[in-house]
Amino acid sequence: MISLVVACTMSFHWICEKLTSLFQLLAMSNKNFMCVTCMEPSSSLYQRYSEGVIRLSDCKNCGEVVDKYVEFETVLVVIDLIIHNISAYRHLIYNMKIQNQFRLAIIFLFCDAYDKWISGRAGIYNIYDLEWIFYKSLLQSTLEMCTYVGVVVLCDVMVHGISSKRIGLVSRGTVIGYYGNVAVVFSIIFRLSNEFSYRSVTQLFIFISHIQIQRTLFPNLSLAMNTAVVAIGVLLSMQSGALCRHLLEY
């Protein structure tokens, strides 16, 4: 029992470290900030008085600090993301700038593809067959992610019209919602890839992440509407993945 607790603790610590390293790819933007409490635009996050001395800016609308996460260690931001604190999502999407969007997307894709590959390799020992299964899994994961991002971007175009800047923001934010894919480490350590409970919890976690991202990107839409968009996107992505898998069987 003690060894199981230690293993779980080490796994959680590893995931926090990995997510921390991923989100350290982010750097402060210099304009278009948002209050993480009320979503009121702000011209600054803090005032710098001297080297190492800053004062966080207050929101003119709600009176709270614009972004409390400015002074947080990255691992604390990651923990708030894991517990789905919407303020952390707002900080990540609006008050930070992704320096390498493509790298994040690739990492999340490979994590999901590896998870699919583990499930699909049962009873197969030929190295060439295993390699082909991984390629199919990677293609399936890519198609699923692109389908979901496309649904959210289409929703944005319907709500806000066509804007390259807005589409870029929505695409980046939506990809971040897949950060739960790095939980594949649990399936590797505890051999959970075929466990229904593990897959259910993982998919539920990612689904809630997408809802929080959706609420952050579309604050004027109701919770029910945002949840419906996420549900439609997830269903269509699953259908596209199933179609891809079916076509590759021939």
Can you put this structure into words, describing what you see?
By secondary structure, this protein is mostly helical. The protein has helices spanning 2-23, 74-82, 86-94, 101-120, 127-160, 164-176, 184-190, 196-217, 223-248, and strands spanning 26-28, 33-34, 41-42, 46-50, 53-56, 96-98. The chain folds into 2 domains: 1-99, no CATH class; 100-250, no CATH class. The strands form 3 sheets. A two-stranded antiparallel ribbon has the order 1-6. Helix 1 packs across helix 2, helix 3 (86-94) packs across helix 8 (196-217) and helix 8 (196-217) crosses helix 9 (223-248). The longest helix has 34 residues, at 127-160.
Helical region count?
9
Sketch the topology as an H/E string, one letter per element.
HEEEEEHHEHHHHHH
Number of strands: 6
Per the principal axes of the C-alpha atoms, what is the gross shape? globular
Largest sheet: 2 strands, antiparallel
What's the end-to-end separation, in Å? 46 Å
What average pLDDT do the residues reach? 85
Work out the radius of gyration: 20 Å
In helices, the fraction of residues equals 55-70%
Content-based structural category: mainly alpha
Which strand-content bin applies to the residues? 5-15%
Counting structural domains, the number is 2
Low-confidence segments, given as residue ranges, are 25-30
Major sheet strand order: 1-6
